[in-house]
Every structure is written in C-alpha cells, then in structure tokens.
Amino acid sequence: MGFRYLDGVQRFDTGxxxxxxxxxxxxxxxxxxxxxxxxxxxxxxxxxxxxxxxDGLTASIALTF
Length: 65
Hints:
0% of the residues lie in helices and 71% in strands. It contains no helices and four strands.
C-alpha cells in the first residue's frame, strides 16, 4: 500500500490541460529478479503494477558492482 503526492500533473484525457495536484492512495504488486553475475556484480529486474488512484506499470533494470 502506498500514498503519493503528485505536484503539477497534467491531465490530457479530459481535454483540459490545466495542472492538477493530487494526493492519491494506491496499492502495488511486483516482482524482483536478482542475479549474482559474479562476486562483485549483480543484475536486478523490477516489475511493479500499481492499482487504485495511481495506476500503471513500471519496470527497471539495475546493474551494481
């Protein structure tokens, strides 16, 4: 569960281009895949889906040394 404060978000789906601020609750579910490529390097893939007032899908790839 989470809560995000969005400052100056534009809504294009309403035909109105005014900026709005939002305080939006949401829930999320995700998965992380982490692979130790070597003793000093690690790959990570994160996929997260958000539901509620903030909906969407995020994905990120990280490589750490």
